[in-house]
């Protein structure tokens, strides 16, 4: 399993801590698409980069972090095929995998503490898409994308 991770200047420490956590706990490879500097860095760059890596298959899933998790998730969700959830608790993170087949997770370094962030990551990584009745809704999301072209 390969995880792409991205962040802006607000979330450099969170990116490093979460990358280390995923590598040590799960043994997954983590590819860094974010900034390593605390100089101002515009979140759409990292959101789009991770999203593209998910869509091309360069990574299996993506995690993006900015101050609130909002801006970077909005950027990711602009890429066709991305379903990025912004979470500040683990319940929605797990359900977003089980029901919505999310392929990206976002959270805010200014919103959740690092230990809660790890719980959100755990819930999201361990959640498995259930398919079945949920697939028709995922297909409807894809139809919306097709109509935009
Ligand atoms: C940067 O100040 C901040 O706007 C950004 O990290 C993020 O919270 C945007 O949604």
Structural features, described:
The structure is a single chain. The chain is of the alpha/beta class. 49% of the residues lie in helices and 16% in strands. It is built from six helices and five strands, in the order βαβαβαβαβαα. Strands 2-1-3-5-4 form a five-stranded parallel beta sheet, sandwiched between helices. Helix 1 links the parallel strand 1 and strand 2 (29-32). The longest helix is centred in the N-terminal third of the chain and has 15 residues, at 12-26. Bound molecules: D-ribose. D-ribose binds at residues 8, 10, 43, 66-68, 70-71.
How do the helices and strands line up, and which of them pair or pack?
Elements: E1 2-7, H1 12-26, E2 29-32, H2 43-56, E3 61-66, H3 70-77, E4 84-86, H4 90-98, E5 104-108, H5 114-126, H6 135-148
Parallel strand pairs: 1-2, 1-3, 3-5, 4-5
Helix pairs in contact: 1-5, 2-3, 4-5
The structure holds D-ribose (RB5).
D-ribose binds at residues 8, 10, 43, 66-68, 70-71.
What's a concise summary of this model?
This protein is α/β, with parallel strands linked by helices and 149 residues long.
